[in-house]
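TL;DR need structure tokens for one chain.
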Amino acid sequence: MPRTHYTRPVLAGLTALTLAAPGAAAAQWAAPGDDSAWDLDISLILEGVYFNELSEGISDPAGFDDGHDHGHSHGHDHGHDHGFDDGFNLGHSELVFEANLGDLFDGVVMIGFDEDHLEVEEAYLVTRGLPAGFQVKAGRFLSDIGYINSRHVHDWDFVDRPLVNEFLFGDHGLQETGVQATWVAPTETYTQLGIELLQGDNSFIPYEGAGGSHSRDGDTIHSSFSDVSGPRLITAFAKFGPDLGPDHAAQFGISGGYADTWQQQTEHGSGLEEWDGDAWFAGIDAVYKYSSGRAYGHGDWRLQGEYFYREVDLDYQRRQFDTNHERHGITGSGTSKQDGLYIQGVYGFAPRWEAGLRAEALGLTNRGRIERDGLDTTVPSFGTSYRHSAQVTFRPVEPVFLRAQLSQNDFIDDHGHRDRGLEFLLQLNVALGAHGAHRF
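>> reply
TL;DR here they are.
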């Protein structure tokens, strides 16, 4: 990744492999008479996952429509899911191109693929050497809100994404096209402020735009949505890293975002249901890392946690045909308030071996309010879903890790029923080629 990212000596991760030897997939270009070289690094990250649903439970947490469930592949309309079938899966692999474009830009293209899908996950330019600690990124990228959102699969401490990030922001997290500007303060402690102007096509704001219709016996109801030009989503974040000495490191963050357009449309019975409004979210995150100074991560600690809250304020409209082909409309308004959190810890109990625990809660606040025609008001309130996971990871060599994970899903459904399911996952991840320094 871009070389200007904040790093600490205690960071664990894969060692970058220099691809300068014959047969390696790295090259340099230099224009005649130009002293600056343009470097291109290529890396391939391969993942295989064995998944076994030891006992079946509820797959969809109450009140949440986004995200995925393993083995059921229901996904959503804003991108493919990364669910697993029972047995062996290719998993989520990545082909990464990173270029140093002289002293002006770093360029990154990341192509993600699994057994059935291929897509450009990230494709952006980021500036190098702007004065006064400023940096600008433009293209398609993972937002820097929170902590886990901007990390890829090989940087996670567990096989799957935390529930709060998945179900509030989608299978890929908050991944958008737009512009990001950050500023690192000239202080002894690390302080970064950032803002993002994003197009707003992510599942956090399921934007439909104009179009859509419902037909019945030759009659048609057309969508009332209008096209809204982007950017439709703005986010802001701040990250702070106090100086704790050579063996300890910490980073604390706050972030939030506002979407001025939230549109959803579904065909329902003999008509169309449309939701049109806005949404906002806010969250906090914290990470602590300790380096014991022993070989291959033995004795190292990592603690990490995040909390996010989301609120959606919508106008409701339902238009339908009756038995005489006459159109009727129902209008109203609604709100939705949801949140979630996770906390996890990982410890290097032996050289090249580590173990971790993660506890998650989704929907501590999980309620909504719907009013139709000013008369019928319903206040659905859903319960909280939980997940607890344990993992053991072995790194025989730095670019390779093998991870076994056991997860218990304690989910509640929309009808108030609670059930527990148990899942086992075995992940193999291999990084081939040049790989930039991992971020904090």
